[in-house]
Design a protein that fits this description.
With 389 residues, the chain is an alpha/beta fold. 35% of the residues lie in helices and 15% in strands. Strands 1, 2, 6, 7, 8, 9, 10, 11, 12 and 13 form a 10-stranded mixed sheet that branches. Strands 3-5-4 form a 3-stranded antiparallel sheet. A hairpin with a 3-residue loop joins strand 4 and strand 5. Helix 9 packs parallel to helix 10 and helix 11 crosses helix 12. The longest helix has 23 residues. The two termini are 32 Å apart.
C-alpha cells in the first residue's frame, strides 16, 4: 500500500481526478514511537574490504598492495582494520562508540547477480524472488500488530518505492522534483476535492505534512548526498515524522579504477550520514542507521584496478542507539585456501541475523519472531548485544 509523493504526483493526481479517472490507491501511516530506523541501501555491491580494510591480515598486502597507501594514518578499528579515510563522519561515530562495522557478512545469496542479490536483500526471502514484498514493509506491519495501534509512518526517500518497502503495510515515498512548485491555491482546491472523502482527505493531509516537513528546499533531485541527508533528517524529525525510512545510494559497482570510484562513493555516503546525524539533533540517541549492500567484491584487484562481484562484504550500524566502537567479525582470513571459491572474502556472519537482532532490540520486538517474519526460512539465531538497551 504505497504512495509516491512529489510535485509531479500532486499535479498528476489532480488531473486524474478532474478527468474522472481513479486515483492510485495510496495510504500513509503514522508512527507514534520515539525509536527511529534509517535503512541505507548501497546499490552495486560496495567493497567491504575497502570500507574497513583488514590491514592486520598478512594476506591483505598481497591482495591489494596498490591500495595500502590509502590507509596510512587512517583511523583504526579493533586494531586489525583501517577505516577508509573518506568515511570521516562514520569514523568519528565509531570513535565515540556510536558505530560498528559488521565484516565478512552476507545474506544467504551466493551467486553474483546484482538483480538477484538486491532482490534477496530487499525482500528478505531465502532465495531470489521467493517473496514479493519487502522485509522493511513487513517490519512496519509487525510493529503495528505488536503495538495494537496504527502502523509507524514509513517513508522511502526515493523517486519510486523500493522493493524493501513494498507490501501490504502502509508506506509512502518522497523525492524532490524539478517541476515547478504547485501554488497554494491549487493545493487548496485539491484539498477541497478530497475533504468529503474520509480516506483520501486524510491521505492528502498527510501528503501535505510530508511536503511541509521537507521544507522550502531548492533541491531538484537526490544527487547531493549532504542535502539528501539533511532532507532525511527533516522528514524523520517532529510529531508527524517518519519513524522508519529508507534511502539508496548508487555508484558502488567498481569493476575498474576502484580506488577513485570507491573514494567518491564513500564520500557521498559519509556526507549523507554526517548531515543526517547533525539534522536529527536530539533524536540521535533513539536512532539506528543500517547500511547494507547486496554482496561483497573479489578479494584481489583485477587487471583494470577494480574488483568484480564477490560474496562476503561489510555492513555498518550507526546511531546513538548502537553499542558501537567495535568490529563484529568472525574473520575467515585472506590466504587463498581461506577465500570463498578461492577469490572472495568468505562470509562467516549471516547479515539477516544481524538485522533481525538489531531491529528487534531497537524496536522492542521479539527477536525470534522478527527473524521468522522478516527473513523467513533462516535458521540463524538473531544477533544480540548490538543495541544499547
Amino acid at each position: 500500500m504505497t504512495m509516491n509523493l512529489n510535485r509531479r504526483t500532486m499535479i498528476a493526481g489532480s488531473l486524474a481526478l478532474s478527468a474522472g479517472l481513479t486515483l492510485p490507491r495510496m495510504a500513509f501511516a503514522q508512527g507514534t514511537g520515539s525509536k527511529k530506523l534509517l535503512f541505507v541501501l548501497l546499490r552495486g555491491a560496495a567493497d567491504g574490504m575497502a570500507m574497513a580494510a583488514p590491514i592486520g591480515d598478512p594476506g591483505f598486502a598481497a591482495l591489494r598492495e596498490a591500495s595500502l597507501g590509502e590507509y596510512e594514518g587512517a583511523a583504526r578499528a579493533d586494531g586489525m582494520f583501517a577505516i577508509h579515510p573518506a568515511l570521516e563522519s562514520i569514523g568519528a561515530a565509531y570513535a565515540s562508540g556510536n558505530a560498528l562495522f559488521v565484516h565478512a557478512a552476507a545474506t544467504a545469496y551466493r551467486e553474483r547477480s546484482h538483480f538477484d542479490g538486491q532482490n534477496m536483500l530487499e525482500t528478505g526471502g531465502a532465495s531470489p524472488y521467493a517473496a514479493r514484498d519487502g522485509w522493511l514493509n513487513r517490519l512496519v506491519g509487525m510493529i503495528a500488530a505488536d503495538g495494537g495501534a496504527e502502523a509507524p509512518r514509513a517513508l522511502a526517500i526515493a523517486p519510486t518505492m523500493p522493493l524493501a518497502l513494498r507490501g501490504d503495510a502502509p508506506a509512502s515515498s518522497y523525492a524532490p522534483s524539478a517541476l515547478p512548485q504547485a501554488s497554494d491555491a491549487f493545493l487548496e482546491r485539491v484539498g477541497l476535492l478530497y475533504e468529503g472523502d474520509p480516506q483520501l482527505g486524510a491521505l492528502w493531509e498527510r501528503a501535505l505534512e510530508t511536503q511541509a516537513m521537507a521544507g522550502d528546499s531548492t533541491m531538484r533531485n537526490l544527487r547531493d548526498a549532504r542535502a539528501a541527508g539533511e532532507l532525511a533528517a527533516s522528514l524523520m524529525s517532529g510529531d508527524s515524522a517518519a519513524q522508519i525510512a529508507m534511502i539508496e545510494l548508487g555508484g558502488w559497482d567498481t569493476h575498474a579504477n576502484q580506488r577513485g570510484a570507491f573514494a567518491r562513493a564513500a564520500r557521498q555516503l559519509d556526507a549523507l550520514l554526517g548531515a543526517y546525524r547533525t539534522g536529527v539533533g536530539g533524536n540521535w540517541n533513539d536512532t539506528l542507521i543500517v547500511v547494507a549492500t547486496e554482496f561483497g567484491r573479489t578479494a584481489s584487484f583485477n587487471g583494470t584496478g577494480g574488483t568484480d562481484h564477490g560474496t562476503g562484504g561489510a555492513a555498518i550500524l550507526m546511531g546513538g542507539a548502537v553499542k558501537g566502537g567495535r568490529v563484529l567479525a568472525d574473520w575467515p582470513g585472506l590466504a587463498t585456501r581461506q577465500l570463498h571459491e578461492g577469490r572472495d572474502l568468505r562470509p562467516t556472519i549471516a547479515l539477516e541475523s544481524v538485522l533481525a537482532g538489531a531491529l528487534a532490540d531497537h524496536l522492542r520486538l521479539d527477536p525470534a519472531r522478527a527473524m521468522a517474519q522478516l527473513f523467513p526460512g533462516r535458521s540463524a539465531v538473531p544477533t544480540g548485544g548490538l543495541i544499547e538497551v
